[in-house]
């Protein structure tokens, strides 16, 4: 009997198992292989080879997968292996010891998929593959930060695991047809077809034979009881490695003008990146030979789009901060160069004049920003000291960069800037905040993509100097935030996990400026960033007013300049760099009804300094909800079992809500700090609808009614009227991690991972704690506070809507929501009451 050559390094102690068939054994079944001999194990079992092995089911080897055998206790599997080993002499099987007909030559046998794969976890362990994947997906060949510690893993498609020898189908993708006849100066056309090359790995995999229950972890000490065996995988990547590159040929675009302006203006300076790409920046610097400190911004809104073209309300900006190069949410070069600073304003990758992949707020974006900071510190005109100063996007990015500790970074001022991408911006309480993302992406980001035609004609900055790109090329070179945030739901998914960082890694001096009216995007991030940063010198300053204007007020600019002078110039005229000299917290007290969007009237608000946040003397006071819609700090006798009902899926146009109101306050009371609401909720189906609800979305709003009974509105982000504050929670993500170091009773910590999802069953009552964003109000004598519980956005949401039809589908939410009362159902909101300071 002729056989193929067969050599291996395994002894007979390593018994393989598989599924095989042949002409004599047409039904696929369990088998083992010794040398070139394949032994069919069902024949062996019925022929008595395994003797009386207690617990070995009859017919277990007749199955077309090994799953049943692999799930058996390891002692049973060991007895089977030992019985097979006993048939061998010197590693060679003795055919006479096997039942007749059970042994066949390998050339007569076809191998099949040995197990039914229920789940497939793939760890990123190959450095080369990790770099390839990073280059393909993130335009960054560096491995993720955790790679050299505990590697990242993802859940792959079980159906993609096939037996060796199976033909694979090359993934379809976009690439340039290099064989197409084109003129020398024309790019090859983009075509859709099978990839020309793929990335692959040789992997070592463990088969988990004994299943794990949901949320059960496999501990190392128990591994032997669960691991059935090991296999070698040839893993080819489903992402083509021959990805398209930026089609434009890069040019040197730098120009210098040292005549037309009070400062030297360098436009389109190229900054090389460690990843191999480039970004373009404008440099504005004083006309001096002396090196100066540098203020850096890096963002998507166009370094060359003038403020007046970006938003008509530029007319309201402080005239001292208007110049030929003013730009939205960034420090004005005219002012800052006059006061001895250079300003570097960079176009983010894939935007403006910077080629590359547009992927806002990504790890690759942060990496590039770090490179720009370090580049600025090394220039001949730089003192080596770099500060970050900007609003909103130009503030939120500062936290992530500072945590990386780039060389030269000496101070940051994140002015109204979120610090937590998931919790602050994208998913409030787990609910997709799609309204603003959609508005922001379509108006302010994609309109400035590198290569987008027609920018100049639309008065949206200059056209791409290196040439326009086609729609296909533009689409191939961007990651769409509106799509990405809708597709991903949890913080442990790679999309969100890649944006995580440790706030404790921030060590540079920081001044975090938050706005009490920023209740839908940035407020929470400024407070949390200040609280958890590891900086020795860190300060929290609270303001009011429209999102963009206070940044340019004379009094606020002086705060910025004194802080930066202290840490970038060594000129500390206030005491920022002296421990204990400047109180760490400065808050504005919102007392009275001064209207909204009126900067002059808001000057009536007083400012007070504090030594810590939250304020140490806070008295966390529970205000109890009652079935008669009151809110009281003196709970009554046990309330009879009762419930209040409102419809689910409320909208701005059709609100469904409950409101609970305090009696008039008998004396002036300050409320400043974090708020949490404890509610007992349930859902029930609507008999008129075919679906049964499987989740509950909670929208909470805190409002203030003045002594005249009218609601007091405050200035929101866009100058719109907003209430005191808001909070949200998706009930299926109600799980609180009380062991987390950030958890507080007045600020519940949620991980929002896929492992934290809890079921919501109609009729079941669930106790939930809802985080409500921090606030301040001085409740006047006769004033009242209102807690609003709703099933959707209500007044004060503006463009920050949560109305995505997929995320908030009728299929999972349609029906009725209930708030339960009774002896075992206590509902209250905890308000941070601040007593006067002791003299």
Automatic annotation (TrEMBL):
Xaa-Pro dipeptidyl-peptidase C-terminal domain location, by residue? 561-830
User: Which Gene3D superfamilies does the record cross-reference, listed alphabetically?
Assistant: 1.10.3020.20, alpha/beta hydrolase, Fumarylacetoacetase, N-terminal domain, Fumarylacetoacetase-like, C-terminal domain, Galactose-binding domain-like
Q: Which organism is it from?
A: Parachaetomium inaequale
Record InterPro entries: AB_hydrolase_fold, CocE/Ser_esterase, Fumarylacetoacetase-like_C, Fumarylacetoacetase_C_sf, Fumarylacetoacetase_N, Fumarylacetoacetase_N_sf, Galactose-bd-like_sf, Xaa-Pro-like_dom
The UniProt entry's sequence similarity note says: Belongs to the FAH family.
SUPFAM superfamilies tied to this protein: alpha/beta-Hydrolases, FAH, Fumarylacetoacetate hydrolase, FAH, N-terminal domain, Galactose-binding domain-like
Q: Does the keyword Hydrolase apply?
A: yes
Tell me the GO molecular function terms: dipeptidyl-peptidase activity; fumarylacetoacetase activity
Q: What is the lineage of its organism?
A: Eukaryota, Fungi, Dikarya, Ascomycota, Pezizomycotina
Q: Which GO terms describe its biological process?
A: aromatic amino acid metabolic process
Kindly give the Pfam families that the UniProt entry links to this protein. Answer: FAA_hydrolase, FAA_hydrolase_N, Peptidase_S15, PepX_C
Q: Does the keyword Nucleotide-binding apply?
A: no
Q: Which UniProt keywords apply?
A: Hydrolase
Which parts of the chain span the membrane according to its record?
none
Classification via SMART domains: PepX_C
Q: Which NCBIfam families match?
A: CocE_NonD
Which protein, by its recorded name, is this?
Answer: Alpha/Beta hydrolase protein
């Amino acid at each position: 009997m002729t056989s193929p050559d067969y050599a291996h390094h395994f002894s007979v102690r390593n018994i393989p198992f598989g599924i095989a068939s042949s002409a004599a054994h047409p039904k696929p079944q369990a088998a083992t292989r010794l040398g070139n001999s394949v032994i069919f194990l069902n024949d062996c079992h019925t022929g008595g080879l395994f003797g009386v092995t207690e617990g070995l089911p009859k017919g277990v080897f007749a199955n077309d997968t090994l799953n049943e055998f692999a799930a058996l206790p390891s002692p049973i599997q060991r007895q089977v292996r030992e019985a097979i080993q006993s048939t061998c002499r010197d590693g060679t099987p003795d055919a006479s010891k096997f039942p007749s007909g059970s042994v066949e030559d390998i050339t007569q046998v076809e191998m099949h998929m040995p197990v039914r794969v229920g789940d497939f976890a793939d760890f990123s362990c190959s450095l080369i593959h990790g770099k390839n994947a990073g280059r393909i997906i993130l335009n960054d060949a560096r491995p993720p930060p955790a790679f050299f510690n505990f590697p990242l893993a993802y859940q792959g498609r079980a159906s993609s695991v096939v037996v060796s020898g199976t033909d694979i189908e090359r993934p379809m993708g976009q690439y340039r047809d290099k064989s197409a006849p084109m003129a020398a100066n024309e790019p090859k056309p983009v075509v859709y077809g099978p990839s020309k090359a793929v990335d692959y790995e040789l992997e070592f995999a463990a088969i988990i034979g004994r299943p794990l229950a949901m949320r059960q972890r496999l501990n190392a000490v128990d591994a032997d009881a669960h691991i059935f065996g090991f296999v070698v995988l040839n893993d080819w990547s489903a992402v083509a490695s021959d990805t398209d590159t930026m089609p434009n040929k890069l040019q040197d675009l730098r120009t210098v003008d040292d005549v037309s302006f009070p400062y030297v203006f360098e436009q389109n300076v190229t900054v090389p990146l460690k990843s191999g790409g480039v970004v373009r920046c404008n440099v504005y610097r004083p006309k001096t030979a002396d090196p100066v400190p540098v203020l850096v911004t890096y963002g998507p809104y166009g370094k060359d789009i003038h403020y007046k073209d970006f938003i008509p309300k530029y007319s309201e900006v402080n005239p001292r901060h208007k110049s030929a190069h003013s730009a939205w949410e960034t420090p004005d070069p005219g002012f800052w160069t006059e006061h001895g600073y250079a300003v570097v304003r960079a176009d983010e990758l894939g935007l403006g004049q910077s080629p590359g992949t547009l992927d806002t707020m990504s790890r690759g974006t942060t990496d590039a920003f770090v490179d720009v900071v370090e580049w600025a510190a090394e220039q001949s005109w730089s003192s080596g000291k770099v500060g970050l100063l900007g609003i909103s996007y130009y503030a939120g990015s500062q936290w992530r960069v500072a945590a990386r500790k780039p060389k030269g970074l000496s101070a940051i001022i994140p002015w109204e800037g979120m610090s937590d991408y998931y919790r602050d911006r994208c998913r409030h309480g787990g609910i997709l905040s799609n309204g603003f993302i959609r508005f922001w992406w379509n108006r302010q980001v994609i309109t400035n993509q590198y290569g987008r035609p027609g920018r100049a004609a639309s008065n949206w900055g200059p056209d791409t100097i290196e040439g326009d790109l086609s729609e296909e090329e533009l689409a191939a070179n961007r990651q769409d935030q509106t799509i990405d945030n809708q597709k991903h739901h949890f913080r442990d998914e790679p999309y969100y996990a890649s944006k995580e960082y440790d706030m404790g890694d921030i060590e540079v001096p920081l001044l975090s400026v938050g706005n009490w009216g920023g209740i839908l995007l940035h407020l929470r991030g400024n407070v949390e960033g200040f609280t958890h940063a590891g900086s020795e010198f860190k300060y929290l300053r609270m303001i009011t007013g429209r999102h963009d204007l206070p940044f340019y007020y004379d009094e606020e600019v002086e705060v910025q300049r004194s802080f930066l002078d202290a840490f970038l110039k060594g000129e500390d005229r206030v005491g920022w760099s002296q421990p204990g000299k400047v109180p760490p917290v400065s808050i504005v007290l919102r007392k009275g009804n001064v209207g909204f969007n009126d900067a002059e009237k808001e000057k009536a608000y007083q400012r007070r300094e504090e030594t810590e946040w939250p304020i140490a003397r806070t008295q966390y006071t529970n205000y109890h909800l009652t079935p008669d819609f009151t809110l009281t700090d003196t709970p009554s006798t046990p309330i009879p079992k009762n419930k209040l009902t409102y419809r689910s899926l409320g909208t701005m146009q059709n609100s469904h809500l409950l409101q609970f109101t305090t009696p008039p306050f008998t004396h002036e009371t300050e409320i400043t700090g974090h708020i949490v609401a404890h509610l007992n909720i349930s859902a029930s189906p609507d008999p008129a609808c075919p679906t049964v609800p499987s989740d509950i979305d909670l929208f909470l709003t805190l409002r203030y009614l003045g002594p005249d009974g009218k609601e007091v509105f405050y200035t929101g982000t866009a100058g719109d009227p907003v209430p005191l504050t808001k909070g949200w929670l998706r009930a299926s993500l109600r799980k609180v991690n009380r062991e987390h170091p950030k958890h507080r009773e007045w600020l519940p910590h949620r991980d929002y991972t896929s492992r934290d999802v809890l079921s919501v069953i109609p009729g079941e009552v669930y106790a939930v704690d809802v985080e409500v964003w921090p606030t301040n109000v001085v409740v006047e004598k006769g004033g009242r506070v209102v807690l609003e519980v709703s099933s959707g956005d209500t007044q004060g949401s503006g463009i920050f809507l949560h109305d995505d039809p997929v995320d908030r589908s009728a299929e999972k939410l349609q029906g009725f929501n209930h708030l339960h009362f009774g002896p075992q159902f206590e509902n209250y909101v905890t308000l941070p009451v601040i007593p006067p300071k002791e003299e």
